Amino acid sequence: MDQINLASKCIKEGELVIFPTETVYGIGADAMNPIAVKKIYKAKNRPSQNPIIVHISNRLQIDGIVEKVGTIENKLIDKFWPGPLTIIFQRHKNMPDAVSAGKDTIAVRMPSNDIVRDLIKEAGTPIAAPSANISGRVSPTDFTDLDPEITQQVCAVIDGGKCMYGLESTVVRVMDRKVYILRHGAVTKEMIEHIGLEVAEREDKEILSPGTSFKHYSPKSKIIMVEKSLYKDQIENYVNKGVVVAAIGVDQLLLGLDESVKKISLGDENDLEQVAGNVFSALMELDKVDVQLGIVHDFTNEGIGAAIMDRLKRASVSI
Ligand code: TXA
Ligand code: MG
Questions:
Q1: Which is it for the CA torsion 62, 208, 147, 296, positive or negative?
Q2: Rounded to two decimals, what is the model's pTM?
Q3: How far apart are CA 186 and CA 168, in angstroms?
Q4: Helix (H, G, I), strand (E, B) or coil at 87
Q5: What is the full per-residue pLDDT of the chain (319 aa) written as tens digits?
Q6: Is 105 helix (H, G, I), strand (E, B) or coil?
Q7: Which atom of ligand 1 sits closest to the CA of residue 133?
Q8: Are 138 and 149 in contact (CB under 8 A)?
Q9: 311 phi, psi to nearest 5 deg
Q10: Cα atoms in the Cβ-side hemisphere of radius 13 Å centred on 227
Q11: Which residues lie below 8 Å from residue 5, measured CB to CB, with a gap of 6+?
């Protein structure tokens, strides 16, 4: 039996499966089975008020999951599905409470990764899945980054190598004919505006999307973020004070730093997609090196820079 057959059998039996997507690895269960969905919360130690995204493999599946799909949502679907965009809808009355953490809305996404799409097809049911990390830790973006604490709790794990984007999906909700970005990702504000839609910001993101209010992406080591123009000076300051430092940054800024500094590359300054895909693996790398402090620099807030800044800010402490 191949990996997808085996995993789909697990899903049908109400068990958990870990699988790759184009964003990050997910830990999933049959979205229509409340007992199975509750196992996800337990395995991740996830707060019960944090709802879970439902993954589908074809557009028709959405009918039984959401109340209705509006024109703006349809435009988003036409352009960005399958792909790294999650859309919040009114929840269909048939959907179990557990998926939505009791909310009257439900998040849906159609991934572009073939493995997860085949898994959903074989299982014959939509799959509810958060990222495959213990809550509060860094999301795994490669098979080798999966945490045994979580893999040992599931029925099957599918190896799909490295995830294409390496950042979780963009989460949006349409209200008053505007698209609100609740979580930044590879589908950017600019890309949504490009198809003629209005994008707006809200102050109450935390209420709309509970996941954004939890402490996230915390590596075990302390990280601070400093302005790019002050990066070298700040690192030298800490080194001079005798602090053992890791510099997490783009290659262009790591060049020429003191050799006592451990360097963790985020990739090429001129390729922010590449940087975005390296953020989580860099945070994991930081935990493997023996330093007292990680120092990262800031990025532009434009394009995918917004998603990079969001994840790095949430991983770092304020100074
Ligand atoms: O790329 C991704 O989205 C990955 C892969 C596995 O698909 N999944 C993922 O799930 O990142 P998770 O649970 O780690 O993050 C989902 C985010 C959370 O911030 C959650 O609060 C929000 O989406 N969310 C889910 N359902 C929601 C709802 N009904 N209303 C508002 N926010 C919701
Ligand atoms: Mg997550």
A1: positive
A2: 0.95
A3: 8
A4: strand
A5: 599 999 999 999 999 999 999 999 999 999 999 999 999 999 999 999 999 999 999 999 999 999 999 999 999 999 999 999 999 999 999 999 999 999 999 999 999 999 999 999 999 999 999 999 999 889 999 999 999 999 999 999 999 999 999 999 999 999 999 999 999 999 999 999 999 999 997 777 666 677 666 556 666 789 999 999 999 999 999 999 999 999 999 999 999 898 899 999 999 999 999 999 999 999 999 989 989 999 999 999 999 999 999 999 988 876 5
A6: strand
A7: 14
A8: no
A9: -70, -40
A10: 3
A11: 122
Give the integer Cα–Cα distance in Å for 199 and 170: 13
Ligand 1 binding pocket, CB closer than 6 Å: 21, 23-24, 26, 50-53, 86, 88, 100, 103, 105-107, 109, 129-131, 168-169, 171, 182-183, 208-212
69, 62 contact by CB (below 8 A): yes
The full DSSP string for 158-182 is ----B-SS-SPPEEEEEETTEEEEE
Query: 170: which 2 tokens?
Result: 């963009």
Place of tokens 């991740």: 44
Structure tokens that stand for 43 in this block: 């395995």
Among residues 149, 129, 176, the alpha carbon closest in space to that of 24 is found at 129
Cβ-contact 280, 272 below 8 angstroms: no
Other CB atoms within 10 Å distance of the CB of residue 103: 15
First to last CA, the chain: 53
Nearest atom in ligand 1 to the alpha carbon of residue 169 is 1
